[in-house]
Amino acid sequence: MTSPWWRDAVVYEIYVRSFADASGDGVGDLPGVTGRLPYLAELGVDAVWLTPFYRSPMADGGYDVADYRDVDPSFGTLADFDALVTKAHELGLRVMIDIVPNHSSIEHPWFQEALRGVKRDRYLFRTETNNWQSVFGGPAWTRVADGSYYLHLFAPEQPDFNWRNPEVHAEFLDVLRFWLDRGVDGFRIDVANGLYKAEDLPDTTAGFVSGSPMSSRPEVHGVYREWRALVDGYPGERAFVGEVWTDTPEDLALYVRPDELHQSFNFAWLKAPWSADAFRAVIDKTLTEIAAPTWVLSNHDVVRHVTRYGEGSLTPSGGIDRAKAALLAMLALPGSAYLYQGEELGLPEVQEIPPDKRQDPTFFQTDGELPGRDGCRVPLPWSGSASPYGFGTGEPWLPQPSSWALLTAERQAADPASTLSFYKAALAWRRQIMAGDEIEWLAGPADTLFFRRGSVICVVNCGDVAVPLPEHKELVLATAPLVDDLLPPDGGAWLLA
Ligand code: GLC
Question: Are residues 265 and 294 in contact, defined by beta-carbon separation less than 8 angstroms?
């Protein structure tokens, strides 16, 4: 039996607002994505995940949905969506879309009814509040005209649904059907662990995940069993990947039981520091606990990993070298990998965004104390030597740095030594040489990862001295040219055993 496509897929996250703008309004859109799908096919990914493109007042960049069955005019139309799916499938790319079940927008018709006192039980209204804080900062409760409050774990414009109300279940099953019937191959589930809150909404003394309003509750698994049964009735191996934040891999494993989600993001990998011990611990835990492992280094919510890794490196190119080495590690591991748009160009986090250009609610709800997530959401540089770098014709919704002239996709495509060329080579090799569900650790010098999967040996040097390569027949790919068979600090390579 062949394994399902998602099990070892490389999925590319498209943050739609920042990928490509076909309409010229400075915001990315669906026709922009469609136009660039050939680039992604050539890059060598298997699937794309589109962040929310639904009707939305954009209080949280579209994660505040006003109509789950329509496309926001700023992103295009349902016909544009259909054209995107058709084109992707022609190119052999699967399409996953984001589903946002924890909360809607305040402009959703149900919330508008709730404000008028109609069917309030679809949300979490109370006459008294508790001490919960919003993930974006500030209280998680907002008062309405009649003096009662509604719960929002995120922005006040994102009221949380009441998943104890069966109508919410029925509605989401219908929304899933709507998109499955339009041909989507799967869904990324936003805040998948947060749907149920403790029944009596008790005060919390804990932080973001552990014991907090967001922490997993057993009831949530019933939702994913319902959803799984639904997609299993569709042809073509449709899949779910959950955005699940848990304290332990054991808890994460519950979400990917055979009758629940197919996959969940492995944030432990993303959170691990640049350290062979830390990486190895995450790899071991993941491979023992999780049936369908996944790997991810960046997404639209975190500081780009070139910048994260660069902070501890002794060399100016350390961030990029480490990012490339970490890519080799994750693409050599069993399971599937999620890439975030722009990492194939080696884009760093943009740290100097002026306050008046910032857009992320985190920045505003913390009075600027936290910069928020705009720095990883800056529109992509495609071509040319000045902003908007082929992103579109209008002024991009976030400013692009002048240093990005050196990082455009066009420029890198023509340079065999570029980060883009490295990603293409790694993805192409991966298809040819990676096989098997097991890895074997090889003895290596301190602060290195040396492991073997099938006929491939992957080596990564997290230390600060060059180390000799293990015995091998052939070098497949390395993050930098190797001298005397030595792997430099921050370097990585694939070898044939
Ligand atoms: C998820 C999304 C994030 C969004 C939040 C609220 O964590 O990835 O971007 O702000 O949910 O929907």
Answer: yes
The residue annotated as part of the active site, out of 185, 190, 344, 349, is 190
Taking phi first (over 0 means left), then psi (-120 to 50 degrees means alpha), and beta for anything else, what does residue 211 get?
A: left
Structure tokens, 151: 């719960």
Give me the phi and psi of 14, to 5 degrees please: -105, 110
| List 160, 243, 321, 374, catalytic entry | 243
Q: What share of the chain is helix, strand, coil (3-state, %, to 5)?
A: 30, 15, 50
pLDDT at 259: 97
407: amino acid identity, one letter: L
Beta strands in 83-168 (DSSP E): 94-99, 125-126, 141-143, 149-151
| 107 CA to centre of ligand 1 in angstroms | 18
Q: Among candidates 263, 274, 344, which has minimal Cα distance to 309? A: 274
Contact 13 CB / ligand 1 (< 6 Å) = no
Question: Which residue, 120, 101, 124, is CA-closest to 201?
Answer: 124
243 among known catalytic residues: yes
Q: What are phi and psi of 468, to 5 degrees?
A: -70, 145
What amino acid is encoded at 283 in this protein?
I
| Annotation marks residue 374 as catalytic | no
Best mutation site among 190, 241, 377 for ligand 1, i.e. most ligand atoms within 8 A of its Cβ?
190
pLDDT digits (tens, 9 = 90+) for 75-89: 999 999 999 999 999
- CA angle at residue 240 from 234 to 242, to 5 degrees? 160
Ligand 1 closest atom vs CA 136: 10
Per-residue pLDDT reduced to its tens digit, 192-248: 999 999 888 988 865 444 456 677 889 999 999 999 999 999 999 999 999 998 878
Residue-wise burial string across 267-302, b where 16 or more C-beta atoms lie within 10 A, e elsewhere: bbbbebebebeebbebbebbbeebebbbbbbbbbbb
Cα(98) to ligand 1 centroid in Å equals 10
Q: Is the per-residue pLDDT at 412 higher than 90?
A: yes
CB within 8 Å of 250: residues ≥ 6 apart: 289
The verdict on the CB of residue 190 being under 6 Å from ligand 1 is yes
63 CB within 6 A, ligand 1: yes
Q: Which residues of 396-432 are buried (b: 16+ CB within 10 A; e: fewer)?
A: bbbbbbeebeebbbebbbeeeebbbebbbebbebbee
Q: How far is the CA of 59 from the centre of ligand 1 (A)?
A: 11
| Residue of 317, 280, 347 lying closest to 490 (CA atoms) | 317
Å from CA of 365 to ligand 1 middle: 15
**pLDDT tens-place string over residues 397-407:** 999 999 999 99
Peptide bond into 388 cis (omega under 30): yes
